[in-house]
Amino acid sequence: MRNTEEYNKTDTAGYLDMDLLRFSTAGSVDDGKSTLIGRLMYDTKSIFEDQIEAVEKSSKNRGDEHVNLALLTDGLKAEREQGITIDVAYRYFATPKRKFIIADTPGHVQYTRNMVTGASNVNLAIILIDARKGVIEQTKRHSFIASLLQIKHVIVCINKMDLVDYKEEVFEQIKKDYLSFDAKLEIPDIRFIPISALNGDNVVDKSENMEWYKGPSLLWTLENVQVASDRDLIDGRFPVQWVIRPQSNEYHDFRGYAGLVSGGIFRKGEEVVVLPSGFTTKIKSIETMDGELQEAFPPMSVAMTLEDEIDISRGDMIAKVNNQPVKGQDIELMVCWLNVEPLKLGGKYTVKHTTNEARAIIKEVKYKVNVNTLEKNEEDKEVGANDIARITLKTAKPLLYDAYRKNRNTGSLIIIDEFTQQTVGAGMII
Amino acid sequence: MSSYNLSHLDQLESEAIYIFREVAAQFEKPVILFSGGKDSITMVHLAQKAFWPAKIPFPLLHIDTGHNFPEALEFRDNLAERYKVNLDVGLVQDSIDKGTAVEEKGLNPSRNTLQSITLLEKLEEGQYDAAFGGGRRDEEKARAKERFFSHRDDFGQWDPKNQRPELWNLYNGKKAPGESFRIFPISNWTEMDVWQYIKKEKIALPSIYFSHKREVVNRNGVLIAKSPYNTLLDGEKYEEKTIRYRTLGCMTITGAVESDADDLDKIIEEVAAARQTERGGRADDKRSEAAMEERKRQGYF
To answer: Angle CA(A141)–CA(A77)–CA(A68) in degrees, nearest 5?
Structure first.
């Protein structure tokens, strides 16, 4: 059994080797999600005395019997009063191995948009199931969203095992139910862990109450799951974000194309194509303030200089000559609608995609997806808040894109209402 | 390098650089809110990395309560020179003189809430449409829900229930005239990340972050420095202690911690072992459970 004191030690020499895991948590209102996060943070010493004191005080004011770990994560005044989480909140904890960023998303029925938002940047999703209730509609919805957003790793935590006497049959039945439903989804790595967030069983340390469970604890899994290979290291994609022109004597002719590598590995001296113009040239140097690099890979922010003088500006893309993105104006995508104003068929919007922006018209709604049953609905084409639908867009100028399945950076876009300036839709290109 | 992995600090740095470049591209007149503390010093360092070898394309704006540590002000002026950036200073005293801000009553008034007034006046005067802040989501509960691009209405107010969803790395900085954004490039950093990064990048800091001797008074468990702005209450007295600061604010409210940590390694060790959040020493957050949320709604950093 591991001593949690271990997390209190610093390893100032080792911090450079720590990596980062982003994960989301989703669950229904009462299945103990906030308690689980509170538990992870508490047991890894990521919660401080004054935070605990504040929570003890509020627990007492509310008349709770014991210290309510859920209060650590319920941030805003309104939700503390109502006892529900109403927006994506970000939490942080670290072990000597990894730093973790949690996108804590609410499980309440009308908040699909928050779940999509929270899940858009994560490597892994934790889905909580109440052992007494088993697989319910919300479990399916969360799993579908994880699959839609191409999250490669899902950990299904079957919580409140203490309330079903830690019985193996309960765990196995839920696992079976989940897998029969999961066949319709695209999640390559699914793991199941029986836990009790309240008591800490299998959260940080392996539980002695469930000898029949041979797998690792949740924290061990979070520390060890391999996510590095989930990045697209094949398709060279470098959307130009900003052009650096120092206009100083020392760097008189310097023209650096700054951006974040969105796919593939770029090497100094390599031949590249600049899109949409189609000119080819070579990478002269890959620059950072810390010195020149021989190669750049996702998600590094760098600046490239090129051998030839080509007119390049924000929104252009540098790619590999023999592996280019799709260039097109008719784009088919899955959209999650985020706004109370419904989608307007034939309506004009602005689309933001990589560092590019274009006006767009919504041409067609093909079908809506029932997020609870995964069934397609081709009759009702009214797309409102929290709906997920397959649509087609026509953009005023060509976008340089890939399928979302291939690359999450070049395959995603947001739809902005031209009048309210609100982000109204999240799109995943097919 | 061969495994194509980036450490957590490298990933956080890249994310922050991406935000700086995005703001330069999407806004007309951004400004960096510079408090003098380690988070804003780290921000300036990241901004330099984002645009190197060009200069940082934004000015710095410091809201000076008039109750600052002299060491922090001296450091601020040197820093502006070193990075060759313009420094704009907004004085809370000016707002008080104009009558737009009213000093709190009582013996030891805090000018902390008045900062918001001066800040909004300066943002309007400078026509700044985006203001970078060093806020981190791990600092405080209300901040845990902040966006990287945080929309403010024409009164500079934050509406936590009506925030724009932020997906992938697509940031929507569109706004109506008069509206503005607050930008938080180090949202995802923790206190520990900032200290580790300062060490890795060898970033210079004001001396008061390191252990030194200072006369302080213990007021309700908070160690307040001796200064012209602090009046002793009945029964209080100053004592010399070996202390340092974990965060920098007004001399009147920022609590010191007793500490022997006189270099970065010792500070990192101390942060790791600390049982109080860095804001734990700040009297302003203790006023009510939702103190930060209320101030943010009104336009605080």
So the answer is: 70
**Distance (Å) from the alpha carbon of A83 to chain B's nearest alpha carbon:** 15
Cβ separation of B55 and A412 shorter than 8 Å? Answer: no
pLDDT of residue B8: 94
Q: Distance (Å, rounded) from C-alpha A375 to C-alpha B33?
A: 50
As a whole number of angstroms, the distance between CA A210 and CA A207 comes to: 6
Cross-chain residue pair B49–A289, CB shorter than 8 Å: yes
In this structure, are residues A264 and B40 in contact, taking their beta carbons and an 8 Å threshold?
no
d(CA B8, CA A119): 19
ipTM value? 0.90
pLDDT digits (tens, 9 = 90+) for A121-145: 999 999 999 999 999 888 888 899 9
Q: Name the maximum alpha-carbon separation found in chain B.
A: 65
Q: What is the CA radius of gyration of chain A?
A: 24
Q: Which residues contact A153 (CB under 8 A, 6 or more apart)?
A: A123, A124, A125, A187, A188, A189, A190, A191, A225, A227
Chain A residues 309-338 with CB within 8 Å of chain B? 314, 338
A186, two tokens: 């695209």
- Residues A153, A166: Cα–Cα separation, whole Å: 25
Domains within chain A, CATH numbers bracketed: 15-230 (3.40.50.300), 237-320 (2.40.30.10), 326-429 (2.40.30.10)
Helix axes B191-201, B38-51, angle to 10 degrees: 60
User: Residues, chain B, total?
Assistant: 301
Which residue matches tokens 């005044």? A77
Query: DSSP labels for A87-103?
Result: S-EEEEEE-SSEEEEEE
Stretch A362-389: mean pLDDT, rounded? 92
Distance between CA B226 and CA B240 in Å, rounded?
10
In angstroms, the CA B299 to CA B153 distance is 10
| Residues A207, B106: Cα–Cα separation, whole Å | 56
